Known about the structure:
- There is one protein chain.
- The chain is an alpha+beta fold.
- The protein is about 25% helix and about 35% strand.
- It has 2 helices and 6 strands; from the N terminus they run βαβββββα.
Amino acid sequence: MPAQIRFSxxxxxxxxxxxxxFALYDLAKTTYVKDVLGNSVDWRRMGIVVANINAxxxxxxxxxxEIVIQTAMERIGRKSFTLLQRAVNARTREVxxxxxxxxxxxxxxxGLAMLMPDAVRQQIEEYEGRKFG
Length: 133
């Protein structure tokens, strides 16, 4: 997904502020879920929440670098999954930052973690073109 870097994203050192990466990753997560699951999930019953997010900042992004956010499924568990995301310079292909996010399926009415529905797992595997253990 192309990421638009705004003037306000740049800090006093001339590079994109660390907090901006998480906003870009969040937008890409939303796009990924929409692309993979579409309207097949009743989001009034099932939700997805972030349980852990960890980013490794490898090199700074400067304005006006052209950045893309790559998002892929890294692991699927019974109730959770891990997304791997990368901020990549579109021209040079240099990885600027790598992020791992653990997300948990939850029953919105009970407010508790729930098993990932088989249909959701199947759609992810079809989209990713591979099976997850």
